[in-house]
Amino acid sequence: MFGKSSLGKAMYVSRILVWLMVGLGLVGTPAITNAALPSLESWTHVSSDGQYVLVMISPLSAAEEVEFSDADADVKMIRATYMQSGLYRNDGSTSPIWTIPFKDVTHEVYLGPQGKYLMLAHDGGSNWSGHLGHLVTFYSDGRELASYTDEKLFSLVELGLPQVARSEYDNLAFDPQGMTFTIFGSQGVRIVFDVTSGQVIRHVSPVPMYVAAAILLFTSLVVIGWFWLRCQRVATAST
């Protein structure tokens, strides 16, 4: 018979394997070499004003997580203090203001004023299993407003351009005064969201400029070609 430790270890390994297979299925073959195991550890994030703390409780049992975590003291403190994933007042309160399903620690966290709005984002080049292509997800009081991936947010033309859709130099910015969230991409791409609705309010892209330049180049080549052929015909006729 297996003891509790062996059984817990088997359950932990099986869950990791399932998460990994799902992640690799979503990411696809080209990204396998860069894929990484998803983190199942509990974690916290304190808001910039220090008033709130976002808590994520692992889907693993407390015993499993404490046994296999690399940060035993931190995990024990989180699991001993909080029971649910969600937002709490950073004053020792153990009653959540609102709850949210577990999200792993690879997310960039942005909390709005009064703890109402939450943005979970990934900066460029994130190859964590299950997150490749994810840009940002918006929440209001723990309720998901909108979520965006490369394929959902960018046009096929933009996705076909090198380093336009995503790059490792992307920059994320939250403006709590204007309540906007901005993704700065390469080649002049800038996407601005309304935090209160999660909707895109501005999408600046180099694609129209590229299309106009391509049309101008094509037109110029046609005119030059036509003029050259006309000159050739005139020269032939004169001889």
Automatic annotation (TrEMBL):
Domain of life from the UniProt record: Bacteria
Stretches that traverse the bilayer: 209-229
InterPro entries: Quino_amine_DH_bsu
Keyword terms of this UniProt record: Membrane, Transmembrane, Transmembrane helix
Name the UniProt record assigns to this protein: Uncharacterized protein
Lineage, top ranks: Bacteria, Pseudomonadati, Planctomycetota, Planctomycetia, Pirellulales
